[in-house]
Amino acid sequence: MKTLRVSQPFGATAVEVQPLARRRPSLGGLRVAILDNSKPNADVLLGRVAELLVERAGAGPVAVWRKPGSSHPATVIDEVAAAADVALTGSAD
Amino acid sequence: MPVAVLGTDAFVSLGQAAARALGMPHLQLKTVPHPIGGIDPKVVRAKAETIVDRVIAALTRDPATPTTAAPEAAVVVDAPADLDAFQDFAVAEGWSDGLPVLPPTEERVARLLGHLAQRRDEVVATLAPRRGIATLEAIAVNAALAGALPEHLPVIVAAVRAVAEPRFNLYAIQTTTHPCTPLLIVNGPLGRRLGISGGANALGQGHRANAVIGRGLRLCLQNVGGARPGREDRATLGHGGKFSYCLAENEAESPWPSLHVERGFGAGESCVTVCGAEAPHNVNDHGSTTAEALCLALAGTAATTGSNNVYLGGEPLVILGPEHAATLAASGWSKADVRRALWERARVRLERFSRENRERFAVIDPARFKDRPLTDEVALCTDAMDIMVIVAGGPGKHSAVVPTFGATRSVTVLIE
Fold first, then answer.
1. Helices (H) and strands (E) in chain B, counts
2. What count of other Cβ atoms lies within 10 Å of the Cβ of residue B53?
3. Comparing C-alpha atoms, which of B114, B192, B197 is closest to residue B157?
4. Which pTM does this prediction carry?
5. What's the whole-number mean pLDDT along residues B195-217?
6. CB-based contact A41 B106, cutoff 8 Å
7. Which residue, among B321, B336, B307, has the nearest Cα to B404 in the 3D structure?
């Protein structure tokens, strides 16, 4: 087969691999943050998972932050990080 | 802090792409079956039960950190020389939009770059969601695929620069389920020189410059930005403008200052404006002979319950055909008068929104939706002066209303 030399159209990315925060050995007594993006029923899914973390894994108090809309980044991340030990978030319809 | 990220299985490809772009390909996403929105909350609670053990694991077990990101693909590759076989190759490699593309050979890319070849590694922008680096060369490769000519490249480069401005909110535009895509509006003498149509059928087929410039940007967004249809690009339906969406303003037949002049540029300068836009909705009015009368049809078309602008704000676009623009101007109306009149008349009664939607919109925009009587009305967007008005098209009594994504602002840049 006759071939052509062509440039692939993707270019490089600006990505560097980051370590994740150390996971916690247990959730016992830990403060749980919910960052809700206000998509319909996101609060229901995240809220029920948080309740179950309390029931099944002994997690501590649950606090909720809500973004007014899903299409902009959260502005409360530092506040959440200062006020909780672990967080639940997500995005979907 | 340890974070567990939840979603639905239909969105996992977008979640994984977001994690990769943040340098966290090892972040595990915990998914439930799609959907969670628009269904009984009891079912959502039941779905939560099915993932709680995986969420506990995600918060208590360290995943291995990969040593490096995924290796970059080769920059130059062999592809079939036969043009039909090349299409199969381009589709399989994810380079194509489905229409035939032209091979981006080194010769064609060099021809497109011309004197810019010495600056080929210059970074124009970083494009979401992939955080792909749009160098002049990467843009030229996509322009080559699109069939653009060297003189079209500066418009595509300017459009890439414009969509990457933070206020455009490219990440959301690229990944939303909404059908929006950047509409390119070209102003100034360069558009006329390149033959970018702002006349008859300007948003339709038949204009090479419109077609390849809009397509060149779209292929940059898909390939460099990494918004692949059905994967990171989550558009439920999309629209035809996602192949190419570009026109010039018909400055010669506009009775008013053009868009770029309104935004502080000189009439002799050439600019491109990007706006995250839906498909155009036609406004047919063959009868009205005054501005007041014509405004009824324009406002009636713009006031809809399913538009993002009605609850997110942003800048709905009105494209006036030259004959409609002349009717408005003959009544003594300025562009600002058109905006004010539309904003006052393009209104939706709150009772026309479902209770669920009113509750949702009240969280997003309490001033307009919270605790208001159902007989109150909301305007098509938050502020009259947010309505964009341009003149384009050929002879005929038609205009178009183009709702936008809402959570975005249009951006006008100089074409260099």
1. 16, 15
2. 13
3. B114
4. 0.93
5. 98
6. no
7. B307
